[in-house]
Specification:
This protein is α+β, with helices and mostly antiparallel strands and about 625 residues long. The chain has 27 helices and 21 strands. The model has no long low-confidence stretch (mean pLDDT about 95).
Length: about 625
């Protein structure tokens, strides 16, 4: 392992914590990993490949949790605040890497580490405290059972200026769709990271550093940073985004989901953003857009830390016809405090309502609850799941176990890919990059790595051409993506995955309101000037591709097959909702999609990636091109 001689951008150290042995060790960051995989997301996947045994149970002591900060975390690069955490997720049985904002990535770098690798299982509830070279395993007995907001605030009081990743009761009880929160305001670990923490008796990780991140060429680096800030200052919707966060896209959301504007407006009460309800806006370190919020319900002792308001308004407000913002905030606070994924919870509540209506679930199963489409039902079911009481014990295991228990009657409610709930249904929207990405992403359905111009319907060919160039797609690839005058979704997604891979390896937030200001050339300039390792835009694009392929190979080793990339069968059937009928259509909403259309998109994607279209896995030739041939051999063992 080669240590970086001059440490610029990188801290140069990897912190290892073995909870079983109670041991802490520090190893130098591998220079080869840093140069070939950038950092953060990319290096996390390589460390996971080396550190965890193939086929490990996600909840076994031998499983690993890897925190990764990128070379731009802790610098002044706008929006460079994402920490990325890699683990084998219990809901899918596959490795996933989640990104969360807050101060953790910067504080980890300030403490002197690029990555934190946690293995083993503590013999009692524990939290890890990191203060520069002083790393301790502390007794978390008085924190165990505590809600996330309360635990985080207690640790902030004990470690002023720190950043905290914590799990709630759902994680402690190994709920397979539990997650963690970063500094109360950023979700982390869709797919069950909270349960992995719980299996290790790990309640939280708190970090506080006193160092700094040095850059190799400060003048060159700041020139690039200033250029970004000038663009941000000229952005005409900056104040709107700061005022409403992701709710700034409410109109586009309604259009995407084919919801009449007047119907959508009934769910968005402006009062929630008034000074008496939204008491603070929150920005991650180095982010010029304060797009997270702290809410308080007037007259109630309910505090709500929110990554955004759009998600709970969608998955609880619109889907359950709840229009009172106070109810939506109460649900959000409850779900966050328990540490539950609200997207999975929403689908499970809908399942309960449907199965109760069919007589397959009784009030006795629900502890006496009569389920209805209201906030009280959602909050009650969240409690049953987090505490594993009554039918909550079954729901906590996820869709695969639920289907085993109820059989075919449950399948119509279980729209999942790889065991993880689908986020975007092309019958409700259209077949864009986010819809397709849910199929091929190794970690399961996520909108993050599928972000592209198809967020918005009706984009022109010129828009796609400009954005493909922005993320580094070469000219021949752009020609393939836009051949015939329409966007090829399968081919498009490959290049936006690579873009997500670059941002996540650098540590830059991938939210549209941040990454819109970045392009491949700016990223290459920031990386080169920060680290002193010169990379052209083409070389950075290749590193992003290498990091994504490393994630794929890691999961091929765990049994990920092409069969798992197939769309849910429901996509081929009409959907009737609120008196309206929907069918899956292409991005332009011109054609009704068939099974052959989905298959073609998959083949186009695999071909664009240079993977075998029959197996959906990287070819030997592709891995040689990327310098990853050594891991292919190990993956097949």
């Amino acid at each position: 392992m080669e240590e970086l001689a001059e440490l610029y951008g990188y801290a140069g150290k990897v912190l290892h914590v073995d909870l079983s042995k109670g041991e802490v060790s520090v190893k130098p960051l591998d220079l080869g990993y840093a140069e070939s995989l950038i950092g953060g997301f990319g290096v996390n996947n390589r460390i996971a490949y080396e550190a965890a045994p193939a086929g490990v149970d996600p909840l076994a002591p031998e499983s690993v949790v890897i925190f990764g900060a990128g070379p731009l975390n802790g610098t002044l690069a706008p929006g460079a605040a994402k920490i990325h955490v890699t683990a084998k997720m219990p809901l899918t049985g596959l490795y996933g890497t989640s990104g969360g904002g807050g101060g953790f990535a910067a504080q980890l770098k300030f403490a002197g580490y690029d990555h934190l690798v946690v293995t083993g299982r503590a013999d009692k509830p524990t939290y890890i405290s990191i203060e520069d070279d002083e790393v301790r395993l502390k007794d978390a007995g008085d924190l165990w059972g505590g809600m996330i907001y309360d635990v985080t605030k207690r640790l902030w009081e004990e470690y002023p200026g720190s950043s905290v990743v914590a799990v709630g009761p759902a994680g402690e009880r190994l709920v397979k769709f539990s997650l963690a929160l970063v500094d109360n305001v950023a979700t982390l670990g869709r797919g069950g990271l909270g349960a992995v923490f719980g299996s290790k008796n790990l309640k939280a990780v708190v970090v506080r550093g006193s160092g700094e991140v040095r850059v190799a060429d400060a003048e060159r680096f700041m020139d690039a940073v200033k250029g970004l800030y000038e663009r941000i200052e000229r952005y005409p919707f900056r104040s709107f985004v700061t005022e409403y966060g992701m709710m700034a896209g409410w109109g586009a959301w309604a259009e995407m989901f084919q919801i009449p504007r007047e119907e959508a407006e009934a769910y968005f009460n402006q009062e929630v953003f008034s000074g008496k309800v939204r008491v603070a806006t929150i920005a991650c370190p180095s982010c010029p857009l304060s797009d997270k919020f702290l809410f308080r319900i007037p007259g109630e002792e309910v505090e709500v830390w929110a990554t955004d308001y759009l998600t709970p308004l969608t998955v609880f407000g619109y889907l359950f016809q709840i229009t009172d913002y106070r109810d939506i905030l109460r649900i959000t606070a409850t779900v966050n405090q328990y540490g539950l994924d609200m997207l999975s919870l929403s689908n499970l509540v809908n399942f309960i309502l449907g199965m109760y209506g069919e007589g397959a679930i009784t009030r006795e199963d629900l502890g006496g609850l009569k389920p209805e489409r209201n906030a009280e039902t959602i909050i009650a079911i969240a409690g049953l799941i987090a505490q594993r009481e009554n039918i909550g014990d079954l729901l906590a295991e996820g869709w695969r176990t639920i289907i085993q228990r109820f059989g075919r009657v449950a399948e119509k409610y279980a729209m999942h890919v790889k065991g993880l709930d689908v986020l975007y249904d092309p019958r409700r929207t259209y077949f864009g990059s986010m819809e397709f990405e849910q199929l091929v992403c190794p970690r399961g359905p996520t909108s993050n790595s599928g972000g592209s111009p198809t967020y918005v319907p009706g984009k022109s060919i010129e828009d796609f051409e400009r954005h493909c160039d922005r993320v580094g797609a070469p000219r021949d690839a752009i020609a393939r993506i836009l051949e015939g005058g329409e966007v090829n979704i399968g081919r498009l997604v490959r290049h936006f995955e690579d873009w997500y891979s670059i941002l996540s390896s650098l540590g830059i937030c991938n939210r549209a309101q941040v990454n819109r200001f970045y392009n491949i050339r700016v990223c290459a300039e920031l990386y080169s000037s920060a680290t002193g390792i010169e990379k052209t835009p083409q070389e950075l694009k290749l590193a992003g591709e290498r990091a994504w392929n490393m994630q794929k190979i890691l999961n091929v080793r765990e049994g990920h097959t092409r069969e798992q990339d197939k769309p849910p069968r429901q996509w081929l059937q009409p959907l009737t909702e609120r008196g309206r009928r929907y069918v899956a259509r292409d991005y332009y909403r011109k054609r009704v999609l068939t099974e052959e259309d989905f298959e073609k998109a998959l083949r186009d994607y695999y071909e664009e990636r240079g993977w075998n279209p029959e197996t959906g896995t990287p070819t030997e030739e592709k891995l040689r091109q990327l310098g990853l041939q050594e891991v292919k051999g190990k993956a097949g063992r």
